[in-house]
Amino acid sequence: MGHIVEEFSHSDDRAIIVSLEMPESEDGDLAEFKELVTSAGVTIECCITGSRQTPHHKYFLGTGKADEVKDAITQYDANVVLINHDLTPSQNRNLEALCGVRVVDRTGLILDIFAQRAQSFEGKLQVELAQLTRLSTRLVRKHTNLSQQRGGAVGLRGPGETRLEMDRRVINDRIRQLKKRLETVTKMRHQGRVSRERNEVPTVALVGYTNAGKSSLFNALTDANAYVQDQLFATLDPTHRALDIEHVGRTVLADTVGFISKLPHDLVEAFKSTLQEAVEADLLLEVIDVADPERELKIREVDKVLEQIGADEVPRLQVFNKIDLNPEISPHISEDGNGLVNAVWISVVKNEGIDLLLEGVASHFQKGHLEMKVTLPPSEGRLRAELYALDAVKNESFSEKGEFELHLYVAKYRLKRLLKEMPKAITYFEQYL
């Protein structure tokens, strides 16, 4: 059975979009919803807004607002209605019956965008799993003659299950298949992480609100060619590249999927293996659009998602990007009360502050660095060469006996890794470990 996806977006889609203000509503704001619609490749013909105290049980919007939407469809010749809220299955069906066109709620729109963006095998599996999980709860009977199992009278014994039950069984079977495949991919990803941990290579993961500039920063740091576009969810598939940082050495940089307010629960569940990169990273770089007027709100949304996936305890360095849009801000580093770097202000577009960011990342890992002076006999030429290869030697002098007097600055984990390979050399470093 092939991929089951529920895409609706085409370049000729003309939408009426609807967004209501409601007390204590957690739905995304209208500007963000418009960005989502545009990212899906849909043309916005009309925007209908309003307010309600509580959702209407039948249409969510209320009867008057629903009629207004129906009239706008005729006026603008629209072929889809996009709602900036999550609808119940019955509300979705009732609106479609009234309007005579497709009605897609906020979660359905995000799922559709994910379906368009997913490129890798794993990404497509994750999107399909999220869509089918959602679809399984929204199946309804559409054929009255199949609405009941046939009785046991002679000549009337039926197939044994209804069409609805058959649909549910097929979908549930496919969901199980997808979960098994994703488990296999997750194991492979885990093996890669175990290998990096075994080699004690630190991992840095880029996280943040979608369209904050994560992939652009990823490219700037690694000379990679990750897909970059000024749209929400431009790329979904995690990408890894090696990154060499002075006084830290080889690290792995991971680019992850962007977050968004009210990220559908099914998507969070489906993308857990991808988001696990953030959970198991040694450091998170939280990329923030400094020019975004709602940046504080989006920082809180990122906090929520990180807490939801269990990554809220991972050390984090905030990266305020796009300072070129504010001439009053120049590249700089901010420190907390303990003198530790907690934020860096940069412009990826102007290539400003990247060196400061690397300093900030290095300072995080240098908290585990050792500074020492050791004396090595001439016979330890190989050990001396390895220390130079680690970029651990700050300066060197020679004693009257021809000994190497080394001033070292090295990450503790890198020194331990070297001593695993050269266990006899531990005598020179015991007092520092």
Automatic annotation (TrEMBL):
Localization per record: Cytoplasm
CDD domains: HflX (cd01878)
Domain of life of the native organism: Bacteria
Keywords for this protein: Cytoplasm, GTP-binding, Hydrolase, Magnesium, Metal-binding, Nucleotide-binding
Gene3D superfamilies (alphabetical): 6.10.250.2860, GTPase HflX, N-terminal domain, P-loop containing nucleotide triphosphate hydrolases
SUPFAM superfamilies named in the record: P-loop containing nucleoside triphosphate hydrolases
Functional description taken from the UniProt entry: GTPase that associates with the 50S ribosomal subunit and may have a role during protein synthesis or ribosome biogenesis.
Family note: Belongs to the TRAFAC class OBG-HflX-like GTPase superfamily. HflX GTPase family.
Protein name as it appears in the record: GTPase HflX
